[in-house]
Design goal:
266 residues, seven-stranded parallel beta sheet, elongated, Alpha/beta knot, 11 helices, 48% helix
Length: 266
Amino acid sequence: MLNFISIVLIGSENAGNIGAVARVMKNFGLSNLILINPLADPQSNTAFGFAMHAKDVLQNAEIYSIPSISSNDMYHQYLDEKLKSFNVVIGTTAKGITYKNIHRMPVFLTEFSINQFSQQDRIALVFGRESTGLTNEELQHMDFLLRIPTDDIYPTLNLSHAVGIILSHFFFQQSSNLQQQIRQNVNLAKQSDKDLLLEKISQVINATPLADFRQKRTLTAFKNILGRAIVTQKEFEYLRNFFRKILQVYENPDIYEAIHENETFK
């Protein structure tokens, strides 16, 4: 049911956690495990011991490493190439809602629906290092950023526990008859539609008298809003048409009166 999701672990530091992740993946029907620059041996006896009956997930895991990361740009180019084969890339974080980095504001897991995507989509669910998580630069490769609601006293979860909680939430959403009915009755916008809308919004922002850094932050804010939103196809069409008309009036102010007089603004 969830096998269109791949689990991506970046810089995993504990072989037992890698094996436990493989085990919880099999619990929820996933089989594709991708390891990027693992610091622990995913083929060790420890990893296989924690995997239990999911040894096949470990044996078939895709393992990628960069021999020498001499350049940060080189690493992110490599990471981008590995992730661009997916339709949607979902990152995870333990940082709370008070985190001030506007570039990637997390969405609570309880606010996120996996049913907005089709099982034909290829989705990557990305987890960072046990000690530090994903870096700010790595977060820029993500389309969404999820946070599991936890007590502020100790918000950081064990890696395999975090994977299990998220997959359990997704599994429940997928198996719910109510969610299935909603999905059948509502035509949701695709990620490619959101990208087209963001392109139109970017054109409008670039036409405004804002400093470059404010234009970038404004576009980032729109990306965050759309990332957290479940947008229907009809909503997408209305919004894209709205921003398109703004650009038309901006580029030719004289057209405004003609539009209202002739009612031909389509």
